[in-house]
Amino acid sequence: MDATDLPKPQEHLDARIAAGPIKVNDQRQLDHASFITRLNAKLGLKVTTIIGTMWAAYLFSLIALVGLPGVIQRGDIVTIVIWLSSSFLQLVLLPIIIVGQNIQAKAADARAEATYNDAAAILQQAIEIQAHLLNQDQQLAAQDAALEKMITSLSLVEQKLTENRN
Q1: Contact yes or no for 88/61 (Cβ under 8 A)
Q2: What is the pTM of this model?
Q3: Rounded to the nearest 10 degrees, what angle do helices 35-51 and 90-165 cross at?
């Protein structure tokens, strides 16, 4: 692999600036090439949006509670445990978990945005530092050339003084 095969940093930076930070919504595949993938993504997103609310959790709680009197009348502890685990907990916890995941996704997006902005600021500082160092390199090169010229001139003066003494 030679230098021409390596990615160009500026091209990468330009592409990242154009793309912006990666967010949860960018990963939903709503613009995928496959119709089936788009359909599944839209359907899944719609169902998740509807079920992933606290209102759905309240509704599911009411639905589960409808069966509670019949379970209690049986008086069987196993039946009560089965109702609690399969009817109540599953129905109620599903939307609550989705709500929590949505909150975490928003937090992840906020972190991604902050990290992206931090990286952009650091990149800008690095560019400024590189420009400053380039300027210093040019000044040092000019000083080196001036010193070399002075040393050469002093050597010539020293030679003439030595010749005049002899």
Answers
A1: yes
A2: 0.56
A3: 110
Distance CA 6, CA 21 (A): 24
Q: Find the helix or strand (DSSP H, E) in which 63 lies.
A: helix 54-66
Contacts for 101-110: CB closer than 8 Å, 24+ residues apart: 101/52, 102/52, 105/24, 106/24, 108/24, 109/21, 109/23, 109/24, 109/25
| 29 C-beta neighbours (distance < 10 Å), count | 15
Q: Please, what is the Cα angle at 32 between 30 and 33, to 5 degrees?
A: 145
Q: What pLDDT is stored for residue 8 in this prediction?
A: 66
CA 52 – CA 95 distance, rounded (Å): 5
Give pLDDT, residue 127. Answer: 84
The pLDDT value given to residue 77 = 92
